[in-house]
From TrEMBL:
PANTHER family, per database record: CILIA- AND FLAGELLA-ASSOCIATED PROTEIN 65 (PTHR46127:SF1)
A Pfam family hit: Ig_CFAP65
Lineage of the organism: Eukaryota, Metazoa, Spiralia, Lophotrochozoa, Mollusca
Protein name per UniProt: CFAP65 tenth Ig-like domain-containing protein
Domain CFAP65 tenth Ig-like: 15-133
Originating species: Arion vulgaris
Signal peptide: none
């Protein structure tokens, strides 16, 4: 008796050997920056390897040099990581600096080439503002209001084993080299089976800023476990948008999987190293 909502799902399939980077959009907007900043914050643009093979990418920064010359040799856009490698299923954050010279909107098109793959042209946009004009109307925010996803899960999924007390954490605006902690509770929804959880970061570099304890643990039926998430604001001023994956498995099935995997590895090593001599006339 409620309102009907039409959802349009779009997916991409690629060959097993094809290098592929998923670009959700051909446009990206940086956070607004004040003019006159000596050291602008580092901002990120994420690249996701949706294929089954490692990917090597490179960004053509020629257009950045052109816009720099048009602005009295001032680096409006600076790409700190114009190339790199991404493992299958992993994410890499391209680091950028946006340093506006005037209170206006800047735009630049940057081709990103995937080795042995396709090329995408991404339009990067940045808005500069004059803090003397904006004054208190330009208040720093933590980005919480810019994301419309709920903090907690609102609907149970079929076959779901457990759930998180929070699915999005905002650490707010932090002084450099400060540390802040948040708590997340993982609850086992089953009344008769134990579960096992394990945290993973989508990018290895994110481990420099964020830490979770415990990383993995088992939870008994109808019980819960508290995890401490610690964020350290290190290096240089930057905006962070980090993804963490919590994998939850049935403990019984997980134990069987680990046992079968260990047996398969033993058999694999035996077949690689063992040989049988079939000749019968060795002493002839």
């Amino acid at each position: 008796s409620g309102r009907e909502i039409l959802l349009n799902f779009i997916g991409v399939t690629v060959a097993h050997t094809r290098p592929y980077i998923h670009f959700p959009s051909n446009k990206h907007s940086f956070h607004m920056m004040a003019i006159g900043e000596k050291n602008s914050h580092i901002q990120i643009y994420e690249l996701y390897n949706g294929g089954a093979v490692p990917v090597t990418f490179s960004a053509d920064v020629t257009s950045l040099s052109i816009i720099e010359k048009e602005n009295f040799n001032h680096s409006i856009f600076e790409c700190l990581t114009p190339h790199g490698n991404i493992l299958p299923g992993q994410t890499m954050a391209m680091e950028w600096r946006f340093s506006p010279l005037e209170a206006k909107t800047y735009m630049v098109d940057v081709p990103i080439k995937v080795q042995d793959g396709e090329q995408a042209i991404i339009t990067f946009t940045g808005v500069g503002y004059d803090p003397r004009v904006m004054r208190d109307s330009m208040v720093l925010t933590d980005g919480h209001e810019s994301c419309h996803a709920p903090n907690i899960q609102t609907a149970k999924q079929p076959g779901q084993l457990g759930y998180l007390s929070l699915e999005r954490i905002s650490f707010g605006n932090l002084p450099l080299f400060s540390q802040v902690r948040r708590m997340i509770f993982i609850t086992n929804m089953s009344k008769d089976r134990s579960i096992f959880f394990e945290w993973n970061v989508t990018s290895q570099k994110d481990s420099e800023y964020i830490n979770i304890y415990p990383v993995r643990e088992k939870i008994g039926p109808s019980e819960y476990k508290m995890c401490r998430v610690t964020f350290l604001a290190t290096n240089v001023p930057a905006f962070y948008d980090l993804d963490l994956v919590c994998e939850i498995s049935d403990l019984h099935e997980y134990t069987n999987y680990k046992r079968e995997l260990a047996a398969w590895e033993v058999e694999r090593d035996r077949q690689l190293n063992e040989f049988i001599i079939t000749e019968t006339d060795l002493h002839a």
